[in-house]
Design a protein that fits this description.
Elements: H1 12-42, H2 46-65, H3 67-82, H4 86-113, H5 115-120, H6 128-142, H7 144-159, H8 164-187, H9 196-220, H10 236-267, H11 273-308, H12 312-339, H13 341-345, H14 352-366, H15 369-384, H16 389-400, H17 402-411, H18 418-446, H19 454-457, H20 461-471
């Protein structure tokens, strides 16, 4: 049985890096599922990409709801370990998995039964695009229980300070998805050519195998903690705590998906191709988003344990260390989007019009990459101290502002469709600035450091010294 890691002592940078790298790898694998689909489906044309991209909004919506149990597990387990209470950590693990099962089952039934109505929201072109989207959503909804519970397992492991094991398990699923995608999409030997449905089946099979591995290793083998599901008794207190910790994050992410859906519907005014471009562009940006989310999750677990141990100075150092890493990554991403946009986007779509549109999309996103990463990392720090509401308020307010901003900017003669993409990018800039300012205020209040008067900093040293003497 492997031990949970104590993050309340030891070298900060090394601990964050050791915890973050497997999480980033896991996140990139989740992104690779989608990228693999997009790369292979791109060979079928932009219509297939538009179908899967549209249906993917509802998968994203479901993942947002299940953040309740993932965040609840990460924060609850890590803070319990910081207090050296392993039984409490086990209770959080049991309850998070129970509610993940309930929520994912409800989402699965809803998506399967109402697939036609859900895809009708996008007003896609009748025929192959709309039919492909409906078929894809129905198939992936069958595997929602696997797709949505696996991240909760991952959250438990992250809270315990062991992010390597879920990385290995998800690597198996990714390898299987990479193998099955071309076989089921195009048809090879005994495998029929199923198009978009083949991509959905490959994803369900891969996620199902990962789920089985988690069941064997965590539940049966008890490799990292004694979950003792035989002792499970629903606790109102633990349930309330999980939903209190996870609901603000889930609500924000859910509304984020809803706002994105509204913007996607707005952009269909210019046809199906912009939907395909935006779907591919979102997957490309996910490289930056997933990497920073990995560091944010690592910071959340690190902060959670130190919060339980009431070590605010270590929390402060961990935050600034992670922030420095994030700004460096954001700078590299910005340069890549500006300089290598054509090369990056041509991996997915070859059609000249779609390619040119994609290059423009990446340049607009490049403006906000550093700020987006700052916001994500700061969210991890807030989650670690159990204050999930502030970043959720910021996210809901300014992500929601994308809708009216997109409407106004796209109505302008000079911007048109690009106004929607500019609304997305500029809102990320604002979110990053506000998030950073808010958390720095929390650190000043909690760490016991005296607040600096900004006006006094503008006064020469000799004058300040004289003012101090006069007061005495």
């Amino acid at each position: 049985m492997q031990k949970a890691k104590d993050l309340t002592k030891g070298p900060i940078f090394k601990q964050l890096l050791n915890l973050a790298i497997p999480i980033i790898g896991t996140s990139l694998m989740q992104m690779a599922y989608n990228l693999t689909d997009m790369i292979w489906l791109g060979r079928l044309g932009s219509e297939a990409v538009a179908s899967v991209g549209s249906a993917g909004f509802y998968v994203w919506l479901g993942m947002s709801v299940l953040l309740i149990t993932r965040v609840g597990a990460e924060v609850g387990v890590s803070q319990s370990l910081g207090k050296k209470d392993t039984e409490q950590a086990a209770k959080y693990a049991r309850h998070s998995l129970f509610w993940a099962l309930i929520l994912s089952a409800l989402l699965s039934m809803t998506a399967f039964v109402f697939a036609d109505e859900l895809m009708g929201v996008f007003r896609l072109s009748k025929g192959s695009v709309e039919d492909g989207a409906i078929g894809y959503l129905r198939i992936v909804s069958i595997g929602f229980i696997f797709t949505f519970i696996n991240p909760t397992f991952q959250g438990i492991y992250n809270g315990l300070g062991n992010s390597k094991l879920p990385f290995y398990y998800l690597l198996v699923g990714l390898g299987l998805n990479i193998i099955l995608d071309p076989l089921l999409i195009f048809g090879v030997s005994i495998f029929p050519a199923l198009g978009t449905s083949g991509a959905a089946i490959a994803t369900v099979i891969a996620q199902g195998i990962v789920f089985i591995i988690f069941i064997i290793r965590f539940v049966i083998k008890k490799e990292i903690i004694q979950p003792e599901f035989r002792n499970f008794k629903l606790s109102k207190k633990i349930t309330k705590s999980i939903f209190k910790l996870g609901s603000p994050v889930a609500m924000e992410s859910t509304l984020f998906a809803v706002f994105a859906l509204i913007l996607a519907r707005m952009i269909t005014k210019w046809g199906d191709m912009p939907i395909a471009v935006q779907s591919v562009g979102a997957q490309i940006e996910a490289l930056s988003w997933m990497t920073s989310s990995g560091f944010a999750t690592a910071l959340g677990s690190f902060t959670g344990q130190n919060f339980g141990a009431k070590n605010w100075e270590r929390i402060r150092k961990g935050y600034f260390t992670t922030l420095g890493i994030g700004v460096f990554m954001g700078t590299l991403t910005t340069i890549a989007f500006f300089v290598f946009g054509r090369q990056i986007f041509s991996l997915f779509l070859k059609e000249p019009e779609a390619l040119q549109m994609g290059i423009t999309y990446l340049k607009i996103l490049a403006v906000s990459q550093i700020f987006m990463i700052i916001e994500i990392i700061t969210r991890g720090a807030f989650n670690g101290i159990g204050r999930t509401i502030p970043p959720s308020i910021i996210g809901i307010v300014f992500t929601g502002a994308r809708v009216p901003a997109g409407y106004i900017l796209s109505s302008a003669k000079l911007l048109g469709m690009l106004g929607i993409w500019w609304a997305i990018s500029l809102s990320s800039v604002v979110k990053g600035i506000v998030s950073l300012s808010w958390f720095l205020t929390v650190l000043r209040n909690k760490s016991g450091r005296p607040r600096k008067n900004i006006l006094l900093c503008l006064i020469p040293n000799r004058m300040r010294q004289q003012m101090t003497v006069n007061k005495k």
